[in-house]
Each structure stands twice: as structure tokens, then as C-alpha cells.
Amino acid sequence: MAQAADFRHFVRLHEGGLCELELAIEAMGRAVSLEAVERAVRALPGVVFARLNLSSLRLTVRWREQDLSVEAILDALPEIGCSAHPMAGEGPEDEEARQAKWLLACLAVAGFAAMNIMLLSVSVWAGNVTDITPETRDFFHWLSGLIALPAAAYAGQPFFRSAIASLRARSMTMDVPISVGILLALGMSVVETAGHAEHAYFDSAAMLLFFLLCGRYLDLAMRRRTRSVAANLAALRAEVAQRLDEAGEPVAVPVAAIRPGDRVLVKPGERIPVDGIVLSGRSEIDEGLVTGETQRRVVGPGAEVHCGALSHEGALTVRVNAAGEQTLLADIERLLDKATLGRSRYVRLADRAARLYSPVVHVTALATALVWLAAGASLHDALVVAISVLIITCPCALALAVPAVQVVAAGALFRSGVLLNAPDAIERLAEVDTVILDKTGTLTLPAGAVANAGEVEPEMLALAARLASTSHHPLAAAFTGMGPKGELVPGARETTGQGVSAEIDGVPARLGTAEFCSAEVEAAAARRLDPQASLIAFAYGDRRVVFRVRQALREDAPETVARLAEAGLDVRVLSGDLEAPVQQAADALGLARWQASCKPAGKIAEVEALQREGRSVLMVGDGINDAPALAAARASLSPISASAIAQSKADAVFLGDKLAPVAAAVEIARSARHLMMQNLWLAVLYNAIAVPLAVAGLVTPLVAATAMSGSSMLVTLNALRARSAPNKVRA
Amino acid sequence: MNVLVFMVPLALALGLTALLAFLWSLRNGQYEDVEGSAVRILSNEDIDVHGHS
């Protein structure tokens, strides 16, 4: 297919007049060989730099513009068994990469400080019960301070900055008591050291920083991994539109580069890549991804079409809508604005704990100081005891309690094929008691399946499937997994809008429209049998078969729905499709509550009505029409095949052709929330024991170090139990 | 004179060197592709390739 393509949108200018491009690499079959990929690309003329990142499967190429085109790079890779997909430049990922680097540097500094100060502190503690001289102790304390103060000034920044930000916003996060605790521990230790005291708390401050930074770094690392996989998947989907230039010639450009007013050509069998008005052409379009309807709609000049609709029969020229035009999408945007407001009121578990925690602890510390003063202690002693209360309650365990579980649970979700979008999604997923499933594209597979596979001779089916594997037409995906594996058809030619033809074992074979395969008679019979199905004809020699392709439920939909019901969830279907197909699907799944012909406003109204009743709704949907409901629901999931707008509103995206990740997500989230609560109670229990000791003035730095590290370890080890959740799910 | 006065700072200085080495390697991008590095160490290709950082 020699076709003009325009990849300028992806190419960045590098220093020295070089072009730079980032590509997501997908292995076809075997694992990617780093050497082979880099060698193949470096062998191209003009390439000066090629480096594959094997962790993220991204290839960075730099070349001299005049010597090479992007297509040449893309073409070089299939020869060695992988395909490359251009990626858009600078995203939120780069910012997160910088932040991860910074956190890792902070972690290293805090780790260095904690280890070395602990070395000095242990010597002091051992010396205090034997025969250390006051001079040596002072020397060790000053050295500790010399390490701790600059280390805290550097490594404490992530907490200090966020504490200042949250104070400015007049809210309370865990970072405020953390910062207060660290600063007071350091300040008191300096004063105590200057007064030649026996105890200094430099080690507590450094250790606290180290533990907390560990939690924070792991949290970010998990999020980055998810995001990087998601970005690669987006690049693999490679949304390309055929833009017509001034001369009326189609040029392939990435959808992101399309501007309002552009004219776009949509060939039969392609998804419409933009929202717009049909200028010319006539076609039947399948709007499953837009409205959830499986009935096709006939469109002609002047009709409004939406991104994601599948054009079946004829070619269309579409003019891209300008922003602000009265379209379905504008309505959806308005609904979205309203829906997103509602969710932002959700307060995360850790922040709720912080709101309760800081006043209690700070009042306790103040009361301690007053009681000691009243009992006749000196101001200095009373303050030392009060600050030791603050240090020992410094929410190390409390601050790790939630994020540690979150990291482990996000990993478990990742392995089950669920990529988290929102960091607080786990907590919200755990609270749901009602699940609303969209039908088209969510309960059913977007590609459809061959309905009459059982009635056709197996030999013909296998041959058709082999031929189908060479086609790019969306309907051809219905044959996936039906043919023998790995047997390709050499010399297959695709005629756009018609079908594929090839010779198999010397016999001419054709797969495509009824006219293309001259199977009009068989097609008419099949049409009478099932007026709604899409037909694919197959000709092999003189034999003719017509396959009926229609929406099929995801293979494991019934068991997943049963699993959700077993977990005590109220499962419902809410679809934009007509009554008959929705009822059919609901019956197959054994669901009593379903609603058909829902408009986007209807879906969001239903979700809001349920939530007003006090229910927490999990919305699972893929269509543009689901986006407002996805944003309004307490939690939401989208399949990876969903429309871009639905995916951006969903808390998490699940991969693959199965529905099981939906049940797994709820189960993992629930067990994660259970562990979070357990951890919070462990932290409370720790404080219940430690605080009375501190109030009584019995907490020495040795006690503080043991108690704090002990409780942090306990909470972290408990969090690791979230790993085993997916095994329980599978059993 | 107490031997600790220079032995302890000396030990700290050694530790600090290791910390600085780590920070240098971090800034140098050596933790950006740990899986790739495991493969790359067995490859001879980087000997004649420039732009390798």
C-alpha cells in the first residue's frame, strides 16, 4: 500500500539539526532482541543515534532530516519481527520521570544519613550504659547533626513543599504532621546537643524521612509503570486519519494533528476518526462505540457523524467540526463538567485519617507539657517530653499504612490486566455496591463474532480464518482464533471496501462482500435469516459460504456477572441500544434489571439517582455516550477498546477480551481496603502503646527508634498480603 | 589525642563518596532502563557506536 503519510506531528527537533522520534515497539511473536532492533535502525542511512529502552519498549531514533524519512524507519522493523508505532512527544510522563529521579536522589541522601547517624547513635546508646565520656558523646551528637541537618534540608523537601501547599489550601494532609515532627525533632536535638544532654533525636528524623521516601518512591514508580504501558498501548492503536489536502489527495496523518475544518476521507471498513459533518458519500455506519446501538444508521451528505463509528459500505468525506458547534459531543462535554464536580468532593482515606490525627496528637503534646509544668518540672524538661510525644507519634506507620497497600494492590491489578488512571481509584472501587454495565463493547466484544460457525464445514471456516488474518477490515477480527495458528497466506491482496483475495493451495479464494465473492444468492438467504447481522462471504473455487457476524457477549461475561453478584453487588445493564438486543443480553446473563435506549443524560440521571439513594455505583462502559456516567459514578472502568473520551474519564482501563478484570478489580480493591483499615488500626494500636510511654517521659531515642521502625515494618509487611489477592480471585 | 576524631569523619567521607557516585549515576540516566542494561552488557556493539551515554 503505497500511500502518502505525514508523521511530522510526531517528529521533534533535536539539537544540531537532527530529527528525533520516539517509537513504541511491539514484538510480533518472539521477544524483542535489543541488538537486532538497534542494528537494523542504525544501518539506515542518516541515522546517528538509536537506542531501545527494553524496560519501557521505546525506541529513540535521531537522524539527519535530508537523508531519511520516517516511513523508512517504520519499514525497517517488520523485517526483524517487530512493529513500530510513533509516539507523541513530551507528555505528563516526562514530568513524572523527573520527579522519580528527584525522589530517588532524596531517598539516597536520606538512606545515607539514616545509616550513618544510626551508627553514631548506637555507639552513644551503648556508651550511655557503659563508660562514654561526655566529650565523645557531644562529638558524636554534633557529627550526627552535621549529617542530619543538610540531609533533611534536601531529602525533606517533598514533604515540606506539599505541607506548605496544603496549608495554603487550608486543608490537612499527612505531610503537615510529618513536617512538624521532623522539624521539631531536629530543632530539639540541636538545642539538646548544645546543652550537652544525654539524648538527641537526629536518628529518628533521618529514619523517618527514609521510610516515608521509600513509600513515596514506590508509589510513583508503580504509577509510572502503568502510565508507560498505557501510552504504548495508545501508540499501538495508532489512530490515523486520511486528511484530504488542497488537491484532494488523501494523506495519512495522526488524529492529533487534525484541525477543525479539515476534510477527512473515511474508507469502507474504517472507523471514523473525527467528529464532523458528512460532505459527500453515502454509507451505513455502526455507532456501537458512540451510542451503544447495534442497528446501523444510513448517513449521507449533511449527516452528523461521530468519532468511533464504523463505516461499512461506502466511502465518506467528512468535514471536521469546529469547537463549540452544536453536536452530541458538546452536550456530553456539558454533562461531563457537572459530573466531574461531584466526584472531586471525595476525601481519601489517608486524608481523613490525617484530619482526625493531627489535632488529637498536637493537643496531647500540649497537654503533656502543661501537666509536666504543673507537676513542677522545668520548662525545658516539659518541652522535651512534649516534643518526644510528637516525635514518637510522627505518623510514620500511619503515612505508610495506605500507600504501601496501594502500591502492592496496584501491582496486583496490573497483573490482572487493570491499569489504574486515578491514584485513589482503589479506595473508591472498594466501596461500590452496585455495578452498571454498558452492553455494546463492554458486555459484548467490539469486533463481533461469527454466529453460524457451527453450521459451516470446518475446512471452509479454517480457510476463511486464514485469509481473514491478512485483512485489516474490522469485521475480519471476528475470525480471530478460528484458523490454524501461524499458517499465513502468501500473496494475499486486499481491495479496500471489497475484500481480500489470494490463492490457497492453488485454488483461488476470496473473502469479503457478497458481490466480491459472487455469492449474492447465499447472502440474500442469510439476510432473511438474520437481518441485523453483518455478512461476510467466502469463495473457495466454486464453493460459497456466507458468514453472519454479530455482536457476541464476551466469552466469560456470564461467569463474571455471577462472580460480581456473588460478591454482593447489584448488577444492572444500562444500554443505548434497542430493547430487543439488550433484553437478549440481560437474559443470557440472568440479569433482571436492565434498561434500553438510554441517552447520555439518561445514563447519568440513573447513576445519580442510585447514588442519591445512598448507593455507590461502579460504571463500566466504553462509548462516548457513557463518558458522563463514567465521570459521575463513584468508580468507573473502561475496556481498552473504548472511545478516548470514555477512557480518559474512567478510573481504570482493563485489557484483553475478557470481562474478568472487572470482577478482579473489585475483589482486589476490597481486599486492599480491608488491609488499609487493618493497617490504620495497627498504627492506632501502636500509638495507644507508645503515647502513654512518651507522656510519662520514658521515651529515649533508643525506644523511639525501635518503636518507629518496628511499627513501619509491621505495616509494610501487612501490606504485602495484598499481593496474594489475585490468587484468591482465580481460585 | 583521640583516634575517633579523624577515623569517624574518614569513614563518613568514604560513605559520602559512595553517595555521590550513586547520585552521579542517577543523573547520568543509568537507572532508566535496567532491563536493557542487563542485555547490553553482553553486546559488543557499543564499542564502535558514538552517542552512547
Features:
heterodimer, A: 731 residues, alpha+beta, seven-stranded mixed β-sheet, six-stranded antiparallel β-sheet, 23 helices, 17% strand, elongated, disordered C terminus, B: 53 residues, mainly alpha
How would you explain this protein's 3D organization?
The complex is a heterodimer of chains A (731) and B (53). In chain A, helix 20 (644-649) links the parallel strand 26 and strand 27. The longest helix of chain A has 37 residues, at 92-128. With 731 residues, chain A is of the alpha+beta class. In chain A, 49% of the residues lie in helices and 17% in strands. Residues 726-731 of chain A have low confidence and may be disordered. Chain A has 23 helices and 27 strands. Chain A is elongated and about 105 Å long. A seven-stranded mixed beta sheet of chain A has the order 15-27-26-25-16-23-24, sandwiched between helices. In chain A, strands 7-6-8-14-9-12 form a six-stranded antiparallel beta sheet, with no helix packed on it. By secondary structure, chain B is mostly helical. Chain B contains two helices and no strands. Chain B has helices at 4-27, 34-40. The mean pLDDT of chain B is 82. The A-B interface holds A 34-35, 38-39, 42, 48-49, 52-56, 62, 97, 101, 104-105, 108-109, 112, 115-116, 120, 136, 139-140, 143, 147 and B 2, 4-5, 8-9, 12, 15-16, 18-19, 22-23, 26-27, 31-36, 39-40, 43, 45, 49-51.
